[in-house]
Amino acid sequence: MKKRKHGMNDSGVMNASIVGPPIEIKFGIVPNKKPTARDGHSMNVDDNGRIFLFGGDRHHMPFNDLYMLHLP
Predict the structure, then answer these.
(1) Burial 26-62 (b: 16+ CB within 10 A, else e)
(2) 3-state secondary structure the chain
(3) Tell me, what's the pLDDT at 46?
(4) Is 69 in contact with 50 (CB distance < 8 Å)?
């Protein structure tokens, strides 16, 4: 059986069932979510009082994520 991608018909063309203007989607923005404990991460504080936290690992489980937190 041939697998079909979501939103595609058998010939590989997008279905025209979606009508209206495109919707802006912000992926990965989760309010009030704290980063988990980790070792070996990278962090930077910018001039606007934002902390950027990337990566690290905890108990041999690597993280490939990015958090942006506002300093009060």
Answers:
(1) eeeeeeeeebeebeebeeeeeeeeeeebeebeeeeee
(2) CCCCCCCECCCCCECCCCCCCCCCCCCCCCCCCCCCCCECCEEEECCCCEEEEECCEECCEECCCEEEEECC
(3) 93
(4) yes
* Amino acid letter for position 6: H
* Backbone phi and psi for residue 67, each to the nearest 5 degrees, phi listed first: -115, 140
Q: Is 9 exposed, middle or buried (0-12, 13-18, 19+ CB in 10 A)?
A: exposed
Label residue 47 by pLDDT band (50, 70, 90).
Answer: very high
Query: What is the rounded distance in angstroms from the CA atom of residue 72 to the CA atom of residue 65?
Result: 23
pLDDT confidence band for 69 (50 / 70 / 90) = confident
